[in-house]
Amino acid sequence: MSFVRVFLQALNLGTKDFGDFFTLKSFLGAWMVRMITNALMWVMLGQLLGSRETLEYLLVGVAITTGVGSTAAAASTWDRSGGTYPLLVVSPMGPAAATLGRSSIWALSWIPSSILTFAVVCWIIDWRFPLATLAWLPLMITVICFGAWGMCGFLGAVIGGVPKLRNIINNVYLTVLMAFSGISVPVAAWPEPIQALAQILPITHGLAAIRVLLAQGPAEAVIRGALLEILVGFGWLALALFTFRRLADRGRADGSIDYVGG
Amino acid sequence: MSLRLIAAAARLQLRLIRRDIETISPLFTMPLSTIVSMAIFVESGRADLAGYAICASFLITVGQMALFNSSEVITGDRSQQRLELLIAAPQPYVAIVAVRTLILTSMGLIGFIEAWLITHFIFGVTVQIHHPIVLALALTATALSAGCTAVLTAALFSLTTNVRTVQNAVNGPFYLLGGVLVPTRFLPVWLQPFSPFIFFYWSANLVRDSLAPAPVTDLAARFGWLLGLGLLTGLVGVFVMQRMLNQLRRSGKMGLA
């Protein structure tokens, strides 16, 4: 129970971080503009390639996942640059609950960001998805965000050991997802080792399920994809907890939990 | 502006880069987007569009170096308490800033090489450079215009409390309307009239054309627009920076961050 309590307190701290970055006005007027124009840039490749099919594939993949995975892993280092990390390491709870809680606000922000981007880009491209899927789409987007957040938790734990690379690692993560998780091209387009990697990457299963959902395919395939996505998310979270502990133990032993200037 | 000033400003910037690798983070991340765009092209049977992928990765790398990393030059000086010392020095601060933003945006040229190597080694597609002189000039002019733009954004950002908001708001439209990945004629018609006022529009078309076999025409006008837009933005930047410094002096907030 105390894990949940610490997590929620840290989430509360995260909302203050978020408030430092965004007001409602700047979230809508700046962040959303970036997300929508960025998604539109990729979707327009369908226009360049003269293929409505490619355009629709990119529309679903890119518009739904733009921004998903951003900032959360990098935000895991803010306790290091804030000087509070050593206190978390020596606390009986350890740093995992606090760090995951603080950075999870970003994952929560992906959900409205994704829904809004998808809606606006659909409107601009004039693409009508089946209205019957409308009720399920936000839920499936939430599932994807959970999966992506799970891996952010793991990366956040890793970045704790190399805080100077926080934005580089976070951005490489976003590109890896975009290339290999079925966002821009089907997973099957890649060589087998990458296809195998894609199975344990977040978004792969959830997005495939969303594609089935929008094509009004079988419900079992959608549910199976969603469950696999949740499983992948939990897998990465378990690895995150292990890594947080390893890092804290090592830091205590060799003094590497020191202050890192931001 | 003396050579010694340029050398000193350059040395300062290179030291800052060495201390914090994140100062040049786009060089490690942005060229990777070549993998995504090339995958889409290859999957659609259009590997011949590899030049488009390289062009986009290059411009996005330079763009991120300008809008994010170079634009934080003044904010960085202020938060590290260097600004007061630099202003008090007899040399013009704007010259020091301009040298540093130019160094950062010029490093974005590495993005072109990285993108070329990715198409070559990962996708086995060798992009021919049909007009090397035009390409070299286009790359240089792009870095220059981006550096000039960063003088303005650096000045503007040091005045606003929420830099990220402005960076987010301008960066997406810049790439979309500049046609860095998809030429603007493929955009919705109502978006197209804005494009010629963004220097990326001219860069993107010149870089793509220099990689295609057809002769590149109308060079003078196109380079004129590319450099003209950059220099104009730079001049506005110099003006804004003077105003910004005066305002900081008046309000006594020069050393605060």
List keywords for this structure.
heterodimer, A: 262 residues, mainly alpha, B: 257 residues, 71% helix
> Shape of chain B, please?
elongated
How much helicity do the residues of chain A have? Answer: over 70%
End-to-end separation of chain B in angstroms reads: 28 Å
Helical run tally of chain B: 12
Secondary-structure element order of chain A, N to C: HHHHHHHHHHHH
* Biggest sheet record of chain A: none
Structural class of chain B: mainly alpha
**In sequence order, what are the helices and strands of chain B, one letter per element?**
HHHHHHHHHHHH
Beta strand % of chain A:
under 5%
Shape of chain A: globular
Alpha carbon gyration radius of chain A: 19 Å
Low-confidence stretches of chain B: none
Instruction: Provide a count of the helices of chain A.
Output: 12
Can you walk through the features of this model?
- The complex is a heterodimer of chains A (262) and B (257).
- With 262 residues, chain A is mainly alpha-helical.
- Chain A has helices at residues 2-21, 24-48, 52-65, 72-75, 78-81, 85-90, 95-125, 137-159, 166-180, 192-200, 204-214, 219-254.
- In chain A, helix 2 crosses helix 7, helix 7 packs across helix 8 and helix 8 (137-159) packs antiparallel against helix 11 (204-214).
- By secondary structure, chain B is mainly alpha-helical.
- Chain B is built from 12 helices and no strands.
- The A-B interface holds A 21-22, 26, 29-31, 33-38, 40-42, 44-45, 47-49, 51, 54, 58, 124, 164-168, 171-172, 175, 178-179, 184-186, 189-190 and B 20-22, 25, 28-30, 32-33, 35-37, 39-44, 46, 49, 52, 162, 164-166, 168-169, 171-173, 175-176, 180-183, 186-188.
